[in-house]
Amino acid sequence: MAFNKFKQLKDLRSKAKEVQGQLADVSATEEYKGWTFTMNGSLELINVVVDPDTLSKGDAGYVEDIVKKGVNKTLKSVQKISAKKMMKEGGLDAFGLGG
Fold this sequence. Notes:
Layout: H1 2-24, E1 27-32, E2 35-40, E3 45-49, H2 52-55, H3 60-88
Antiparallel strand pairs: 1-2, 2-3
């Protein structure tokens, strides 16, 4: 019985690594107030394109707001894309956790 549980755990870890690799190929790009943010499926911010006009205003709070809201918007998008991809690949059933 213990061997069977160990094998299930090993299979689950293998499937998790496979899905993690597939999600690394996912990316989302969002624009907020002239800035463009790109994040990958590993939730790493991989690119930021800055609107130079926002920097010339000299208001750090304004720029901080753009970065915060832009990154959060991009994060939500990549999470949504990743969730759809996981569902397409079998969702929780792929991990033996489905209903």
